[in-house]
Amino acid sequence: MHNAMKRAVAVRTAGTWTPPPEAGTITLPYDQRHRRRIRMEDDRGLPFLLDLPNAVLLADGDGLEMEDGGVVMVKAARERVADLHFDRAMDAMRVAWHVGNRHTAVQVLSDRTLRIAHDHVLVAMAEGLGARAEELVAPFQPEGGAYASGHGHAHSHGHGHGHGHGHEQGHGHGHTHGH
Predict the structure, then answer these.
(1) Span 16-24, mean pLDDT?
(2) Pairing state of beta strands 24-28 and 71-76?
(3) From CA 58, how far away is CA 50, in angstroms rounded?
């Protein structure tokens, strides 16, 4: 038999564990942190298999628990983002609604600031609604969303539950009207 690749089989939620000095790290952008089963390499180049029972949105500071007891700490990569600043709470709420309506990931920062992944179309829309956009390179840790508890560990995000069907029934597509 060949040597089996190390397997990460569980997630320790950020803030509930202390990384040991020998813990490795893996630095990932937001779009690579919602995973269930994939071959990965830690920041030292050591390969392992992420092998979780359900897809999890990994957050900065989470730990990937290895079968052998080791842990690899997840770090949010710095990436292109836009911080949207507001003078009026009303403008912030309006932009938050429009961003959410597009199912776009958003991080809520303190002081009425919203952070989105950089997207010139969304930035222009936000500016048209009263935001001042600041483009920068920073870690991106959006809200977990309606299916998440905390930042996504308690639920699998329901990807296998037919989410799309529920949307179609209440939107006037004729499914519920008499024929």
Answers:
(1) 92
(2) parallel
(3) 11
Can you give the chain as a three-state secondary structure string?
A: CCCCCCEEEEEECCCCCCCCCCCEEEEECHHHCEEEEEEEECCCCCEEEEEEEEEEECCCCCEEEECCCCEEEEEECEEEEEEEECCCHHHHHHHHHHHHHCCCCEEEECCCEEEEECCHHHHHHHHHCCCEEEEEEEECCCCCCCCCCCCCCCCCCCCCCCHHHHHHHCCCCCCCCCC
Question: Rounded distance, CA 61 to CA 118, Å?
Answer: 23
What pLDDT sits at residue 126? 97
- pLDDT at residue 144, as a whole number: 75
Neighbours of 108 (CB within 10 A): 12
Q: Is the pLDDT higher at 154 or at 133?
A: 133
> What is the pLDDT averaged over residues 62-81?
96
Count of CB atoms situated within 10 Å of the CB of 39: 10
Torsional sign, CA 132, 135, 141, 147: positive
